[in-house]
Amino acid sequence: MSSLAGVFNASATLFTMDFYSALRPGVSQQRLVWIGRVATAVMVLIGLAWIPVIQGGRGLYDYLQGVQAYLAPPIFVVFFLGIFWKRLNGPGCLAALIVGFAMGLFRLGIDTPVKLLEDFSYTEGSFFWIMNNMFFQYYSMLILLVSGIVMVAVSYATREPDYERISGLTFGTITADQKTASRESWSKLDVIASGLVLVAILAAYLYFRG
Question: How far is the C-alpha of 197 from the C-alpha of 181, rounded, in Å?
Answer without folding.
Answer: 24
